[in-house]
């Protein structure tokens, strides 16, 4: 971001009219593209989020119906309209239309310059490096796009695939957050990882 666009003058203008400044960036990420999530993605989202086994470590209960997936589309879209806007993209293969997963950032705290990363991919698209390409591109955008210097990830200690992706992207395990997760009627530990800008 140039000095002018990052200046306090521009920041105060954006604070006055945040909607007017919020474009939705569509990104080119190698074999995949990152685009806006739309209502027509609900059934593909349900195929992922309704799969209890697949979403075992995700941190949210699996969806019970396609109607829940419509609500999820709306809640992903709403990220962009928070006071500190986050973002959630659909991940789509360039050679085959249709949502194969999502990724993005939430719990953005611009005053602290931090946010959390989230992502999931369909079983049929797992194990091809698509998520890694998507996240590399999303992270490169996030430093200026969200005005953050630190991206955090909260991962279940048994979610080995997720830890492997983050490791390849340069995230560092900072420690265990004890009893911060809740699943199946019980509290459980989560690992906290982070990536710093320029690290
Ligand atoms: C976590 C998750 C996104 C990882 O997906 P993934 O496809 O394994 O991740 P990557 O894109 O990094 O792919 C890596 C795999 O692709 C393989 N691969 C194949 N071609 C590749 C290429 N061109 N480039 C890079 N990797 C490639 C790698 O060897 C690796 O395979 P391996 O794990 O069998 O060794 C997925 O397991 C998931 O959606 N889980 C459920 C939701 C979830 O837990 N989300 C995270 C919450 S914290």
Global geometry: globular
Strand fraction equals 25-35%
Helix content: 25-40%
Query: Quick one: CATH superfamily of one domain?
Result: Gcn5-related N-acetyltransferase (GNAT)
Describe the 3D structure:
This protein is an alpha+beta fold and 199 residues long. It has a domain at 23-152: Gcn5-related N-acetyltransferase (GNAT) (Aminopeptidase, 3-Layer(aba) Sandwich). The chain has six helices and eight strands. Strand 5, helix 5 and strand 6 form a beta-alpha-beta unit. The radius of gyration is 17 Å and the shape is globular. The two termini are 18 Å apart. The structure holds coenzyme A. Coenzyme A binds next to strand 5, helix 5 and helix 6.
Task: Characterize this entry briefly.
The chain is an alpha+beta fold. It contains 6 helices and 8 strands.
Q: Which tags fit this structure?
A:
eight-stranded mixed beta sheet; binds coenzyme A; Aminopeptidase; alpha+beta; disordered N terminus; 199 residues; 8 strands
List the helices and strands and how they pair.
Elements: H1 8-16, H2 18-21, E1 27-29, E2 32-36, H3 42-49, H4 66-78, E3 87-93, E4 96-109, E5 114-121, H5 130-145, E6 150-155, H6 160-168, E7 172-183, E8 186-196
Parallel strand pairs: 5-6
Antiparallel strand pairs: 1-2, 2-3, 3-4, 4-5, 6-8, 7-8
């Amino acid at each position: 971001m140039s000095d002018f666009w990052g200046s306090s003058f521009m920041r105060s203008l954006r604070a006055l009219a945040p909607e007017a400044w919020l474009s939705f960036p569509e990104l080119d990420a190698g074999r995949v593209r990152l685009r806006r999530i739309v209502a027509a993605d609900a059934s593909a989202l349900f195929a992922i989020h309704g799969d209890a086994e697949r979403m075992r470590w995700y941190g949210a209960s699996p969806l019970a119906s396609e109607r829940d997936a419509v609500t999820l589309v709306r809640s992903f879209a709403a990220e962009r309209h928070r006071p500190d806007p986050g973002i959630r993209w659909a991940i789509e293969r360039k050679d085959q239309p249709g949502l194969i997963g999502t990724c993005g950032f939430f719990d953005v705290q611009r005053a602290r310059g931090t946010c959390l990363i989230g992502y999931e991919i369909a079983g049929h698209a797992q194990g091809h490096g698509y998520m890694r390409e998507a996240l590399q591109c999303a992270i490169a955008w996030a430093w200026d796009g969200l005005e953050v210097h630190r991206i955090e990830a909260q991962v279940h200690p048994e979610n080995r695939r997720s830890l492997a992706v983050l490791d390849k992207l340069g995230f560092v395990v900072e420690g265990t957050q004890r009893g911060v997760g809740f699943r199946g009627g019980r509290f459980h530990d989560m690992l906290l990882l982070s990536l710093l800008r320029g690290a």
